[in-house]
Design a protein that fits this description.
It is a single chain. The chain contains nine helices and eight strands. The protein is α/β, with parallel strands linked by helices. The protein has one domain: Rossmann fold (3-Layer(aba) Sandwich). The chain has an eight-stranded mixed sheet, sandwiched between helices. Strand 4 and strand 5 form a beta hairpin. The N and C termini lie close together (7 Å).
Length: 246
């Protein structure tokens, strides 16, 4: 399907991260507690970043959409940790953006407020940087979904969307989007058309191979560059040749 293929195994200890947490609405950063990630998982996630964003030469993508094929509980975490790992391996600025307006989550992951974000940036005036939150002691910034997630049709139909995407490229050398499930919403495909490509996330034991094939073919037909796939929550070895059938 593509030259970049990664397989991830989500640690059981990480599951607590995806439970609802109390978010401060008074300060931009409330501080996220440490999260234990299995070393083997961390190694695979680091390889994902290296093989997608840090390829030698000038052909590596700089703006990428991460989206589940259907329902993958770990999709948000995979995108968020990819941004964290990328920021740890470069001195350049990195921005991770929550574009899953139907079920925003990155503000929970990073424990920040969601008063302003990507939805506001598309529909309102002001420099793109004013809508982003720079995380403490890091070259990583977060653009949460924002408070206007209910205006989804207006967001994707807005002529300002392309302008905002161009501004993001100028402001941040690397941009990662967390998009909604591709089988349910066209949003990730629209983002993928404006970005350098997309990484699809397959949930082990849940996502059907035919569904994954349908999604990747549909996105490719829409001229979205499919950069690779991630098998989430894998608990047993699968030959790489099987993935190539997607």
């Amino acid at each position: 399907m593509s030259k970049n293929f990664e397989v991830l195994l989500r640690a059981e200890q990480e599951a607590e991260l995806f439970a609802p947490v109390a978010i401060s609405h008074e300060t931009p950063e409330s501080g996220r507690g440490p999260v234990w990630i299995d070393p083997a998982v961390h190694e695979e996630e680091m390889k994902l970043v290296q093989r997608v964003f840090l390829l030698p030469g000038c052909g590596a993508p700089h703006m990428v959409v991460f989206c589940a094929v259907d329902h993958a509980d770990g999709a948000a975490g995979i995108c968020a940790r990819a941004a964290e790992n990328l920021a740890s391996q470069t001195t350049l600025r990195v921005c991770v953006i929550d574009a899953n307006f139907h079920s925003p989550f990155l503000h929970h992951y990073f424990a920040v407020h969601n008063r302003r974000g990507f939805s506001n940036a598309v529909l309102e005036a002001g420099p793109i940087g004013e809508f982003a939150c720079r995380l403490p002691e890091s070259n990583l910034s977060l653009l949460p979904a924002g408070s206007r997630c209910g205006d989804v049709p207006a967001i994707w139909q807005s002529e300002r969307l392309r302008t905002r995407m161009a501004e993001l490229r100028e402001e941040f050398p690397y941009v990662l989007f967390y998009g909604p499930p591709a089988i349910l919403q066209i949003d990730s495909t629209l983002l993928g058309q404006l970005a350098d490509g997309a990484i699809v996330i397959v949930e082990s034991g849940i996502t059907r191979r035919e569904t994954a094939r349908k999604v990747t073919k549909s996105m490719a037909a829409a001229k979205v560059n499919i950069l690779g796939a991630v098998m989430n929550n894998r608990t047993f070895p699968i030959p790489e040749s099987l993935y190539r059938k997607l």
